[in-house]
Amino acid sequence: MSDRDLDLVLFGATGFTGGLTADYLAAHAPDGLRWAIAGRNADKLESVRRRLGDDVEVLVADASDPAALADVARRARVVISTVGPYLAHGGPLVAACAEAGTDYVDLTGEPEFVDRMFLEHHQTAVRTGARLVHACGFDSIPHDLGAFFTVKQLPSDQPITLRGVVRSGGTFSGGTFHSALNQFARAKEMRKTYTARRRAEVRPEGRSSRSVGGKPHRDSVLGYWLLPLPTIDPIIVARSGAALASYGPEFRYSHWAGTKTLRYAAGGAVGVGAISLASQVKPLRELLLSKVPQGSGPDQAKRDKSWFTVDFVGEAGGTTVHAKVSGGDPGYTETAKMLSEAALCLAFDDNPETAGQVTPAQAMGDALLARLQAAGIRFETIAG
């Protein structure tokens, strides 16, 4: 991509999380970064550019205009998208990047969108050399790279079982809530698309990797009550396990929310069930969506008080490792950091040879792990 005149293009800089991503890039990007912000509203983009500085170019392109998106993709080495819900708005930009051989990252947590993009654009991206890397925010960087970090400390010639336990104190973004609620409402379509992808994708020879569920219970190592967490994260981790031989001949991953008391675990289960049921009734779904608007978020003071941890307990061949990933505000500040560092990693670092739709760990592995640690996200081994 030596003929590209831009290193990065950020779509969605006028939104809340997109704005935080733009601010992070402006503050932490390497000297000489050639980058631009893109979207459909020239006036709003110009306002963001004035905040960021004159070194940032403005590109006017509607997310539903294939010709304009193709022009942007042909100019860039990496495109970042914060324009969601992705199932409604994200497909044309992925298509443009796949066709142009342009690397792409986003922060989607929508399984149906990711599977649709695989079915529609994976083979094109393999042909052109594009790396399409979804789920580069809190969904699913801490979980995917945390599993990668933990597995590195386990024997790779033995079956590996790994569980990730998430705890947080913070507010998730309006975009994340809208995406999750809409996915709950499309459970049938989501299963259908997942099945179609399973039929289409190539399985690893002589190895197996999958996510596994379970019932709420108390974790004997961590001391938390565990509640199954229905997010995209275990799917992403299992796909990394299928792609990377270091995850052993048989890799099993389970994903949980952790609480200190049974009362909170029961309340969480009831809450998730209630939201899932409400999503099936259009008036209730629209009411819930109206209560958490997209494009807005908490102020700096509230974000500064937010936090997350993900504990990982891995077992293989008689070895047990307890590792932890932790950081600040998960839904906004750290998501912008993770997304930005993933894009910079694709643009500038020595990464594994990959193409097509790939996971963060598969596409960037050690290089992204080093970037995240340098950026202040903690990866530590507690025991093992």
Task: Report on this structure.
- The protein is globular, with a radius of gyration of 20 Å.
- Helix content is 46%, strand content 22%.
- Strands 7, 8, 9, 10, 11, 12, 13 and 15 form an 8-stranded mixed beta sheet that branches.
- The chain has 2 domains: 6-137 and 335-368, NAD(P)-binding Rossmann-like Domain (Rossmann fold), CATH 3.40.50.720; 141-329 and 378-383.
- The protein is built from 16 helices and 15 strands.
- By secondary structure, it is of the alpha/beta class.
- The longest helix is centred in the N-terminal third of the chain and has 18 residues, at 111-128.
- The mean pLDDT is 90.
- α1 (16-28) crosses α14 (333-348), α6 (111-128) packs parallel to α9 (187-200) and α7 (141-151) runs parallel beside α10 (233-243).
Descriptive tags:
384 residues; alpha/beta; Rossmann fold; 8-stranded mixed sheet; 7-stranded parallel sheet; 46% helix; globular
